[in-house]
Amino acid sequence: APVPIPDLSKCVKSTPKDIDPVDCCPPFSSNIIDFKFPTFGKLRERPAAQLVDDDYIAKYKEALKLMKALPADDPRSFEQQAKVHCAYCVGGYTQLGYPGVQLSVHNSWLFFPFHRWYLYFYERILGSLINDPTFAIPFWNWDAPDGMRIPSIFTDPKSSLYDPKRDCRHQLPKIVDLDYTKSKEDPTNVNYVPNYPSAEQQIQINLSVMHRQMITNSQTSRQFFGSPYRAGDEGGVDDKGPGSIELTPHTPIHIWTGDPKQPVGEDMGNFYSAGRDPLFYAHHGNVDRMWSIWKTLPGISKDCNDNDWLDSEFLFYDENKNLVKVKVKDCVDESKLGYCYQKVDIPWIDSKP
Ligand code: C2O
Questions:
Q1: How many domains does the chain have?
Q2: Which domain holds residue 122?
Q3: Is residue 279 in some structural domain?
Q4: Mind listing the pLDDT tens digit for each residue in 241-261?
Q5: ipTM of this complex > 0.95?
Q6: Pocket lining: 85 vs ligand 1, CB cutoff 6 Å
Q7: In a domain, 2, yes or no
Q8: CA atoms within 13 A on the CB side of 310
Q9: Pairing relation of β-strands 32-34 and 339-341?
Q10: What domain of life does the native source organism fall in (predicted)?
């Protein structure tokens, strides 16, 4: 059977490894409404973060500033938005109708649809705060040379887009390592890389990683989306099979961005805290974009057609503070949700390792 919505009345503190439990439960409501597709004139185009102009940046900063200024118990507030991720990932929720069975959206085929819905509501809330329903969040274009650094719009300490809890070694102009592990920079570890590749080399390596993960290792929908996860299955952080992109580069980018001097890699380097960094939503914008691109690749790429996947459900608060129930099947075509991605070069298509 499909994974049901979380039982909000049973939400408990989340339990990240190695630190005290954290309260990530959303405000309670028993009034759940069904999702309705938005109406819109034309698609909202999510831009590449390195290409946006000053007007866009001003708007985005303003929207996030307003979101951060909402009271902490407003489900639209930045604090609550960050908690959405935490609650769905590390033991906060159980599945409605399956007492005691955890709900955990990572390392399985729920990864892509859960995050797509999450960004959808995040974007709609930002748009409504600035009275601009056409507002679209940017994506961190880490799969192309132009985008392989932390986008500069997120690096101004005075801006609402900034987060101080990031690895100080990975600030501009450092090129991201899409296959990063902490051990590569740890001289006490056997996997230590004493001579890290140059920026030029790293770019080429990254393009090969993208080709490998998007094409070579994503020949079937099972490989791309990850393993099945059905109602009653115990969700856990490590016990399901992640899809190719979730595994790499999605997770390495999280770890690369978070601050290793914090207790557990906050913010980006841990599930419970990742949503506290505004960069998270741009990172996942590109993860989501990979889903859109994968479907257009020639060959056998197609969405999963298992009904347990299509009928799985999640709960989110929308821009009107309504608690909305959504289904995976309603997000597989992002144009129905009213958005698309700016067309930019996809150089890894031809970068055979
Ligand atoms: Cu929900 Cu990037 O993890």
A1: 1
A2: 8-350
A3: yes
A4: 999 999 999 999 999 999 999
A5: yes
A6: yes
A7: no
A8: 7
A9: unpaired
A10: Eukaryota
